[in-house]
Amino acid sequence: MSIPDVSFVIPTRNRPDILVPCVRACLAQKDISAEILVYDDASDEDMRPILIRAFGDRARVTRFESNLGQPEVRTIGYQEARGRYIVSLDDDTLLFDPLCVARARDMMDSAENIGAVALRYYERPGTPGTSKYASRVGGEGTVECSSFTGAVVVLKRSAVIEAGCYPEWIYRQGEERFLSIRLLDLGYRIVMAGPPSAIHLYSPVRNRSAMSWYGIRNALLFDWICVPHPYFLPYLAKDIVKLFLYKITLANIPRKCAAIAWGLTSMVQKWSLRRPVSREAFRKYLALPRHGPIALPMDWSAEPLVSLGIIQSVSDLDLYLKPEKAHMSACSSR
After folding, report:
1. Which of 8, 159, 185, 193 sits most deeply, having the most CB atoms within 10 A of its CB?
2. pTM
3. Is residue 225 part of a domain?
4. Radius of gyration of the chain (CA)
5. Residues 286-305: what's their mean pLDDT?
6. Which domain holds residue 245?
7. Is the predicted pLDDT of residue 211 greater than 90, yes or no?
């Protein structure tokens, strides 16, 4: 059996309606040899029969009976992947440029020190962070970055394995920061390249409360484990204040305080895990912009997805591009 250029690694949980187009988009990529690895993280409905009906043996599906969390699932996928490069992809992200992965592969082939190529991607207007990222990194060209987001990134498998993949305890939220800074510490570059080539859809099954809860804990653990002296204490203090004030309301103050307390307690519990990166790597991490979403242009059309056979009509994406309140209202009325 020939070794593929690229392994698509797609963790999924309870999103079959979006997952099937996601896999179709991977199969539509051109000028690469690829394997598609889908990991069903204990969905309520087994995803294997759905994907077998849709794709036969073109996608390999592994199901876990207990919920491991996306970071651990991704680590398993990275370890099992046979390709030189890994496309790490959220199951609610659709690639609409059929050559974006081939271009990323060629870029990494030409530069040994690139550990990750972060692909530009769109999110619907109003998504937190879209304006900030768009203003800092723009919509085209090659930009060196401090970190990537999990929506869509092409990784050099050997570099990822060398960096240790993701911490097994993290469970969810913010895992990319840990891998990104380890890549920088090993001397690898993270670059964002090409025009926007994917769209990250809104999903109604995200547990935003849990994302915030784990996000606060993991941010403080990142400081403890990765940040070197003399930066550690001021950086930790800044993060505590920032995490407390972010979207603060009277109603969520107790939960924020509890999450920060959990993070500080976890630092004590994971005292032995401290392995700070070099000061040079940390300064680079602070100085460079981060990969992130770009606001979806008002004139963007899903027609490329239709022409590639990923969706049947432009209207198939209408629900997934609506503002959050409208989407939740539509889902609750079903």
Report:
1. 8
2. 0.91
3. yes
4. 20
5. 92
6. 208-276
7. no
